[in-house]
Amino acid sequence: MRLSLLHLLVPTVFLMALSAYDIQGQALDQGLVPRGQLRLQAHPIYTTWDSRFSRASDGSKRIEKLGDDLSSPNGANLFPGLEILQSSLRELMQAPNYEPSLGPTAGRVQQEMTSIKFAAEVGVSDWLTVGVLMPWNQTRTVIDLIHTPDTLNADLGLNPTVQDPSAVQSFLSSINSASSDARAKATEICAGGANASCVSALELAARASAFESAISSAYSATAFFPLAGSNTGGQLTQILAELNTALSTASLSNILPLVLAQTTLSSNDFAMMAVTPESGIGAVTPLQSRRGLWGPGDVEVSAKLRLAGNMTYPEVLDDPGIAYRVTGRVGVRLPTGTPESPDVLLDIGTGDGQLDLEAGLAAELRVNGRFGIATSGSLVSQRPTTLVRRVARPSQAMPASRTRAEVRWDPGRLVGIEISPYLRISSALSIHGEYRYFQKFRDKVEIIASDTSLNPFILESESGIKLHEVGGGLRYDTVEPWIRGDAPKPMEVHLRFLHAIEGSGRHAPKWTRVEAGIRLFRRLWGQMN
Question: Can you list the domains of the chain with their CATH numbers?
Answer without folding.
Answer: 2-149+277-523 (2.40.160.40), 156-263 (no CATH)
